[in-house]
Amino acid sequence: MQPVCLTFDNGPEPEVTPGVLATLRRRGLPAMFFVVGEKLRDPARRALAERARAEGFPVGNHTLSHGTPLGRRGGAEAVAEITACDALLDGLQEPERLFRPNGGGGALGPHLLNAAAARHLQAGGHTVVLWNAIPRDFDDPDGWPDRALAQHAAATAPVLMVLHDLPNGAMRHLDRVLGRLQDRGVEFLATPPAACVPILRGAAQPGLGAVVSPDPAP
């Protein structure tokens, strides 16, 4: 039975994130939150990110706008998406600067980063956290639980699962899914599996090249 690392993307959202935090706290489970930077300009959403961090959940950078994946942008634009979100996270990323690129629906590949973004993340000592399980709660708010459980059951390596604290109704099923996993005896990881980390505190790891688009020809 493979362990699971839980992550939540695209928040924080006042209608949803408090319930997610309460569920995790009640079940005593670790998780990571990757927030969209521009949402932190809203004081209520900023307060939720601060609450998550105060309750012991790492908070990471999920780009400023969650727009076009960084590997499909120019170098300066991609770097700006990272730096602007880091600035808005001010103080919430300690002790580790976590970053997750947006995948445009959860796909992995060289569209995730461009070379300039990868160099910036390495120079800044970031840890990049990818994924290997996408239950698609973002576009299937009622069907994702069965998919999440099936993905876990079929896994042959530790699972890094991406969920979303978005106001689409999907997280009303969260407690049931976590209960099913706990009933299976699943261990929940506080840190991401190494296979899902192509940059660790600034150092390139195996697999980085597969998620970085090359510099354009001069």
Blueprint of the fold:
Elements: E1 4-9, H1 17-27, E2 32-35, H2 43-54, E3 59-61, H3 75-89, E4 98-99, E5 113-114, H4 115-123, E6 127-128, H5 144-154, E7 159-164, H6 174-183, E8 199-200, E9 203-204, E10 212-213
Parallel strand pairs: 1-2, 1-7, 2-3, 4-6, 5-10
Antiparallel strand pairs: 8-9
Helix pairs in contact: 1-6, 3-4, 5-6
Briefly characterize the structure.
Helix content is 31%, strand content 14%. The protein is built from six helices and ten strands.
Mean pLDDT comes to 96
Poorly predicted runs: none
Q: Indicate the structural class.
A: alpha/beta
The percentage helix is 25-40%
* Overall form: globular
Strand order of the largest sheet: 3-2-1-7
Strand content: 5-15%
Number of strands: 10
Order of helices and strands: EHEHEHEEHEHEHEEE
Cα-atom Rg, whole angstroms? 16 Å
Cα separation of the termini: 49 Å
**What's the story with the biggest beta sheet?**
4 strands, parallel
Number of helices: 6
What does this structure look like?
By secondary structure, the protein is α/β, with parallel strands linked by helices. The relative contact order is 0.20. The mean pLDDT is 96. It is built from six helices and ten strands. The protein has helices at 17-27, 43-54, 75-89, 115-123, 144-154, 174-183; strands at 4-9, 32-35, 59-61, 98-99, 113-114, 127-128, 159-164, 199-200, 203-204, 212-213. The longest helix is centred in the middle third of the chain and has 15 residues, at 75-89. It is 31% helix and 14% strand.
